[in-house]
Amino acid sequence: MKKAAVLLFAFVLSISAFSQGYAPGDEAIDFKLKNIDDSYVSLKDYDSAKGFIVIFTCNHCPYAVAYEDRIIALDKKFKKSGYPVIAINPNDPVAYPSDSFEKMKERASEKGFTFPYLFDETQEIAKTYGATKTPHVFLLQKEKSKLVVKYIGAIDDNYQDSEAVKEKFVENAISSIVDNKDVAVNSTKAIGCSIKWKK
Amino acid sequence: MKIKILIAALILFSSFAIKAQSVKEVNYEQFKPYLNNPSDTVYVINFWATWCKPCIEELPHFMTVAQDMRHKPVKFIFVSLDFPKYKESKLIPFIKENVINEEVLLLNDPNSNFWINDINKEWSGAIPATIIYRKNQRSFFEGQVSYEELTENIEGKL
């Protein structure tokens, strides 16, 4: 009985540790997820990348939609310096039909996404990373064979108006990494749409 | 000084007089007093938006509990995080259609990286989120709250 209790406790602990997700400095896992062109994408496919701007996003969420143009701009600006955007939709399309794989294809072509838009069908990656909402950014840096989390949070400090942004969190973080400096602001918070987990 | 108090009282009074279907727009500084009301009342503060499906799903529980507890010192405040540009076209029609008689505020403050932590360090920023407090007794929920959880938590503070 006591043993069972200890086991149960360890189990609960491991689950809660799991659900915490990543913090800056943690090593991130790679993945293999289906892209809107029906190919499968892994981070290890990007030999020349120095890192990645991984963004959990989706179609249905107004906060995510408000950032679409800024996500395209990030990709255009940083792909050539080695930090491409990798967008991942973690939502359950049963809960949000507009987040289905087909609708992802439609949205990406409407907006002219310049980056992969992947479907995290099992929601494993969002859970492992600790994404709770859309949009939610994880900036990764390649260090030898590892992927290290350098920044977690919002793209910038104004979801309503890109013209009124004062601090570009993701851009500043990439600049610091490129300059070999510590990322001063390595985690931020923003309002977003809860990721709907499968039951 | 006295005049200031009088003006404050008047503003407070008029804000009570304006019933639902008018939505007061506040920035975080203006909103903060709602999180720290020293009265004996239990305050239930729900962060939501019209486009947020899980928020809309839990709304009926909140309305039922508000109705159940209308004779008790419990006050519900629904804090909308809808985009201010959709206040007239989406938020107000939604409030009318769903007959929300409780107070609704529109929190319009883009500096969420500051105020999310200031409201609660545990909050990731995902909605729905709910605070239930009476004086210094405080509970915080990220995600949906069930009818039972809501009732139990409020009663525990009464």
TrEMBL record, chain A:
One of its GO terms (molecular function) is oxidoreductase activity. InterPro entries: AhpC/TSA, PRX-like1, Thioredoxin-like_sf, Thioredoxin_domain. It holds the Pfam family AhpC-TSA. Residues 1-19 form the signal peptide. Residues 22-175 form the Thioredoxin domain. It comes from the Bacteria. Keywords: Signal. This is Thioredoxin family protein. It comes from Plebeiibacterium sediminum.
TrEMBL record, chain B:
GO terms for molecular function: antioxidant activity; oxidoreductase activity. This is TlpA family protein disulfide reductase. Keywords: Signal. It comes from Plebeiibacterium sediminum. The keyword Signal applies. It comes from the Bacteria. The keyword Iron-sulfur does not apply. Residues 1-20 form the signal peptide. It holds the Pfam family AhpC-TSA. SUPFAM superfamilies: Thioredoxin-like.
